[in-house]
Amino acid sequence: MILNKDTAKKTAEFLLQIKAIKLNTTEPFNWASGWKSPIYCDNRITLSFPAVRNFLKEEIAKLVEEKHGKPDVIAGVATGAIAIGVLVAQELGVPFVYVRPEAKKHGRKNQIEGHIEKGQNVVVIEDLISTGKSSLQAVEALKEADVNIKGMVAIFTYGFDIASTNFKEKNIELTTLSSYEYLLEQALDNKYISEKELNTLQAWRSNPSEWNQ
Fold it and tell me: What integer pLDDT is reported at residue 32 of this predicted model?
């Protein structure tokens, strides 16, 4: 879900400007999943650009409060959303924790790092949503800690049907600053891509696992 179209377009433009999102229809990127893709997104690059970093911090914090009210705790999903999660928590003046993909094998064997208490209201922060699998694993770990998950807020989503299905099945409301649709619109408007490249990017999104095989 997108709440503000202007924010969605501005977020997409920032991500394109700083090359946090790269588009290449002639030399596709290889994802860890094995998919070939004409798009690659690394939102950690936003941390190196203060103006972009501050924009995202303020807009996510605003979105969290508008959608869910002020939470007791912000939880970032490791590792990509740890830094932006800290910034959002600081903006809201609330505690922060982060969630590992799995519990550590040593020490206290924590999966959730930081102080959290049963019954607290938590909003989860992500940097990027693809299938949603890793994000929802973090949610499950938080649920096991008996906290109340108000929802998840992310910078960007590819908008895959599988992600929508996964979030619906887990009854978790996802809101993002921007999405693939706004990205393509902005990329075309500002001539990052041509009409032909737009068609290729749209075709990929409709069937990413089989595209260009």
Answer: 83
Mean pLDDT of the 4-19 span: 96
Q: Is residue 158 part of a domain?
A: yes
The total domain count for the chain is: 1
Residues 6+ apart with CB under 8 A from 5: 182
Residue 107 confidence (pLDDT) above 90: no
Residue 36 lies in a domain: yes
In degrees and rounded to multiples of 5, residue 152 shows phi and psi of -125, 140
CATH number at residue 62: 3.40.50.2020
Residue 213 within a domain: no
Condensed to tens digits (0 to 9), the pLDDT of residues 71-101 reads 999 999 999 999 999 999 999 999 999 999 8
Residue 213 has pLDDT above 70, yes or no: no
**Residue 59, domain extent:** 5-206
| Phi/psi at 184 (5° precision) | -65, -40
pTM equals 0.93
From the list 21, 51, 62, 49, the residue with the least C-alpha distance to 182 is 21
> Would 62 be classed as within a structural domain?
yes
